[in-house]
Amino acid sequence: QVQLVESGGGLVQTGGSLRLSCAASGPTFSSYVIVMGWFRQAPGMEREFVARIRWDGRSTYYAESVKGRFTISRDNAKNTVYLQMNSLTPEDTAVYYCAAGRNPIATMIWQYDYWGQGTQVTVSS
């Protein structure tokens, strides 16, 4: 089993920044997880892919809508993945979810096996 806990959400003005964290734990985490991802879900919308990172750090991948503004990173020692979000706009308002899986090129919801509870990000205009 793998447990994921997000933190760092909040209210920020347009143009501001936030850093989300996702702390991972569980007896099988280190042997099971190959990729960590961030998704988001705005009110009335489907959950969408934001970014992913291979746990070995070999690669990252971003949705076009966040490329150049968001940065995903990880700290292996802390079993934590981060999402640095800059130049935020109201369109970034959503609940942000952390996910873990084994497919190193996963961008779809069904490709991830474990999910956190989410953290709310609200960007005011």
List keywords for this structure.
11 strands; 125 residues; mainly beta; 7-stranded mixed beta sheet
Written account of the structure:
It is a single chain. The protein has 125 residues and is mainly beta. Helix content is 3%, strand content 51%. It has one helix at 29-32, and strands at residues 3-7, 10-13, 18-25, 35-41, 48-54, 60-62, 70-75, 80-85, 94-101, 112-115, 119-124. Strand 4 and strand 5 form a beta hairpin. The longest helix is centred in the N-terminal third of the chain and has 4 residues, at 29-32. The termini are far apart.
Brief write-up:
The chain has 125 residues and is mainly β. It has one helix at 29-32, and strands spanning 3-7, 10-13, 18-25, 35-41, 48-54, 60-62, 70-75, 80-85, 94-101, 112-115, 119-124.
| Contiguous uncertain segments of 5+ residues | none
Report the structural category. Answer: mainly beta
Described by the principal axes of the CA atoms, the overall outline is: globular
What is the N-to-C succession of helices and strands? EEEHEEEEEEEE
Rg computed from alpha carbons, rounded to a whole number of angstroms: 13 Å
Helix content: under 10%
Biggest pleated-sheet summary:
7 strands, mixed
Count of helical regions: 1
Question: What is the end-to-end distance?
Answer: 40 Å
Estimate what percentage of residues fall within beta strands.
Answer: over 45%
Return the average pLDDT rounded to an integer: 96
Count of extended strands: 11
Question: Would you spell out the secondary-structure blueprint of this structure?
Answer:
Layout: E1 3-7, E2 10-13, E3 18-25, H1 29-32, E4 35-41, E5 48-54, E6 60-62, E7 70-75, E8 80-85, E9 94-101, E10 112-115, E11 119-124
Parallel strand pairs: 2-11
Antiparallel strand pairs: 1-3, 3-8, 4-5, 4-9, 5-6, 7-8, 9-10, 9-11
